[in-house]
Amino acid sequence: MSATARTAPLPQSAPIPVTVIIPTYNRADLAAGCLHSLFAQPVLPEAVVVVDDGSTDDTVPMLKQQWPQVQVVVQPENLGFAQAVNAGIHAARTPWLLLLNNDMTLDADFLQQMWARAEASGADMVAPLVLWDGDRNRIYSAGDRIGVNGRPEAIGFRALRQGFHIPNEIFSVSAGAGLYRAEIFQDIGCFDKYFLAYFEDSDLGFRARLAGYQPVLAPLAIAYHEGSASIAGKTWWRALQCFRNHSLLVLKNFPLPLIFTCLLPLLRESLHQAVAAFSACRCEFGAVRAFLLVVGVRFAMLLLLPHLWQERRRIQRSRRIPLAELRRLLSMTHEG
After folding, report:
1. Residue-number span of the structural domain to which 222 is assigned
2. Are both 138 and 36 inside the same structural domain?
């Protein structure tokens, strides 16, 4: 089946064997919008789990009152995106899991197109085409890639949809909207809680690629993303997380031969992340505190070295992909 061929609707009485997992933190309006678009689908999932990550607004009462068909998992405190998603994964009982950000809304036949692409391709992970909610002529993501510098990037980010060339191959799938076989998490583990937020899905996607799992893009499955709505006003925190998590991603997943051959671009990217974090923090707190925050993040990583070493050994020992193929995947470029 062609990736661009639409499929006939499934009978509404036959739910897809998928559990939808939506982590949320405050902004009850976002969760409500996401759920409205989900339950408007002509084909529904087998289960929906919303994980509240310690909200202090009326999110939990709203969910329980307005969405009784949804399983609500309440975290005792705000533990971050990774642990919230993990709680949803542990609650799921279906062979497929669809992860959705709370600020994601879905096109009318999103689930149908995602499921059709999964069945037709035989892939293990499926990424939709995500558009900006505020400008639906522009692309937010057409799958994800990771370069030889270790930087995760959304393919087609801010490109005009008209005339955009759909990529034939992607490196990984964003957890903002991504369909995964449940066996992936049983095999390689869940999201790394030490990432807290940002690049945690790139880390999981990298581990999945190393273990031999295949992603695919479903260009007819359309979702709309508001973009970092849950952390509005905290760009400095996001920049610090990206600076920190870039290093975690590389140290865990890059095989040693690739670290040596890609050392220069890896170091350049680490410096770029450090400068970006310093600039964002300086705008918020001034130069002195910005410097201390950036240096503090780097020194705090020393506490994670035992975890990194243990994870790296486990990941690299179970690697099934040849080095040459991994280098090819990391070298992929896309011209929109």
Report:
1. 16-231
2. yes
